From TrEMBL:
Listed SUPFAM superfamilies: Sigma2 domain of RNA polymerase sigma factors, Sigma3 and sigma4 domains of RNA polymerase sigma factors
Organism classification: Bacteria, Bacillati, Actinomycetota, Actinomycetes, Streptosporangiales
Signal peptide (from-to): none
Key words, A-Z: Sigma factor, Transcription, Transcription regulation
Transcription in keyword set: yes
Entry similarity comment: Belongs to the sigma-70 factor family. ECF subfamily.
Ranges of residues in domain RNA polymerase sigma-70 region: 20-79
Name of the protein described by the UniProt record: RNA polymerase sigma factor
Pfam families in UniProt: DUF6596 (PF20239), Sigma70_r2 (PF04542), Sigma70_r4_2 (PF08281)
Organism encoding this protein: Nonomuraea insulae
InterPro entries cross-referenced by the UniProt entry: DUF6596, RNA_pol_sigma-70_dom, RNA_pol_sigma70_r2, RNA_pol_sigma70_r4_t2, RNA_pol_sigma_r2, RNA_pol_sigma_r3/r4-like, WH-like_DNA-bd_sf
Residue intervals of the RNA polymerase sigma factor 70 region 4 type domain: 122-166
Keyword Transcription: yes
Length: 425
């Protein structure tokens, strides 16, 4: 294996394992900043050793073992070594763990602990989200800045202050007491769904989807529903993620290019995930009034229950979006409602809603707004205007697959090729 091959292997393993590695280390050393440093040290060691010795059979475990050895060395050099080891409580265990140690904690879950810790009330909401997207979603500060429409230095400061606050307040990396769980639930749900969305529709890069992030978010969602079985929105979020994830096998062609929802081969949808998602939605409905995630799951279920695109209940979907806009108003909800209304009542009605969002500050730089307008304009026969909108969408997106899709639509419209309806993915 060449040095370049080894480095690619290290990068691939790091993408998959880094969040779980940091979460496990944070639980051990009770210091999020130190956990990141230890993980980075392990990454540097892999970059040095793997080209010479080859990629180990269990690369994730190798990184964990390397980081844990460095954790012991760090603790030994501190005056508070004995106290720290008592807090960690794993001195002999850490010495004896074998190289094939698993990253999973058999009695709990490090990532779920870390998410609840990040959602501690000592942190402001924007700090929680920025830190979660950086550590758990793997986004760069630039990507997070684009998502929140704020300058990149602002995001960097939010992340820095969040980590410093957790350290200064000596917040432990652990699940809070049961009576404190509900107060943090909304933030935890938001973070898990942000992780899922980054996997389902990658913000940037060459891949349209990142299935490993979707799988991790669903795993966390199942754990959360088990920890809080009487919370309707825990089941609602799980339902939403599983129904959406059921489409992943059909969302890309062999070359990785996107296949939009109404073009997908529905026989390739994962019917087990559909059934599980519908069951979770049913549980949410049994437990009480539907919240934002449960309503979005109900909208996704309209697609999941339709065996063909023509069978989709667009009327029900528009009604659900109307309800969602009342309990959780946002420009993005309105944009999605524009798509549903355009399908149920014609593109002119949908365009009216989309046009009303043009001055929304939150949607400036959001590529889906011109993409939706482009589709609705194309369906109205306004090909030149539609092409301009898809060109703008291509300029705004940071995802290469999405950019290629929008450019293809623009070219087709300019060449007066037959247009297709915009399809949610």
């Amino acid at each position: 294996m060449t040095v370049a091959d080894s480095h690619r292997a290290v990068e691939a393993v790091w993408r998959i394992e880094s969040t779980r590695l940091i979460a496990a280390l944070a639980r051990m050393v009770h210091d999020l900043g130190l956990a990141e440093e230890l993980a980075q040290d392990a990454l540097v060691a892999a970059l040095e050793e793997w080209p010479r010795k080859g990629v180990p059979d269990n690369p994730g475990a190798w990184l964990m073992q390397s980081a844990k050895h460095r954790a012991i060395d760090q603790l030994r050099r501190r005056d508070t070594y004995e106290r720290k080891l008592r807090e960690v409580g794993r001195d002999m265990e850490l010495r004896q763990e074998s190289a094939d140690i698993e990253l999973d904690d058999p009695i709990g879950d490090d990532l779920l602990r870390l998410i609840f810790t990040i959602c501690h009330p000592v942190l402001p909401a924007e700090g929680r989200l920025a830190l979660a997207l950086r550590l758990l979603g793997g986004l760069t500060t630039e990507e997070i800045a684009r998502a929140f429409l704020v300058p990149e230095p602002t995001v960097g400061q939010r992340i820095f202050r969040a980590k410093r606050t957790l350290a200064d307040k000596r917040v432990r990396i652990e699940l809070p007491p049961p009576d404190e769980l509900p107060a943090r639930l909304a933030s935890v749900l938001e973070i898990i769904y942000l992780i899922f969305n980054e996997g389902y529709a990658a913000t940037a890069g060459d891949d349209w989807i990142r299935p490993s992030l979707c799988q991790e978010a669903m795993r966390l969602g199942r754990l959360l529903a088990g920890v809080m079985p009487d919370e309707p929105e825990a089941h609602g979020l799980l339902a939403l993620m599983e129904i959406q994830a059921s489409r992943i096998p059909a969302r890309t062609a062999r070359d990785g290019s996107p296949i939009l929802l109404l073009d997908q081969d529905r026989s390739r949808w994962d019917r087990l995930l559909v059934r599980r998602g519908l069951a979770a939605l049913g549980r949410a409905e049994e437990l009480g009034t539907l919240g934002p995630y449960s309503l979005q799951a109900a909208i996704a279920a309209c697609h999941a229950r339709a065996l063909t695109p023509e069978a989709t209940d667009w009327e029900r979907m528009t009604a659900l979006y109307r309800l969602l806009s009342h309990i959780s108003p946002s420009p993005i909800v309105e944009l999605n409602r524009a798509v549903a209304v355009g399908m149920a009542h014609g593109p002119a009605r949908g365009l009216e809603i989309a046009d009303s969002l043009l001055d929304e500050r939150a949607l400036r730089g959001y590529p889906q707004l011109p993409a939706v307008r482009g589709d609705l304009l194309a369906r109205l026969g306004r090909a030149e205007e539609a092409a301009a909108e898809f060109t703008r969408a291509a300029e705004l997106t940071r995802n290469e697959r999405e950019r290629a899709l929008y450019r293809a639509r623009a070219t087709a419209l300019k060449d007066s090729a037959p247009t297709e309806t915009f399809r949610t993915t």
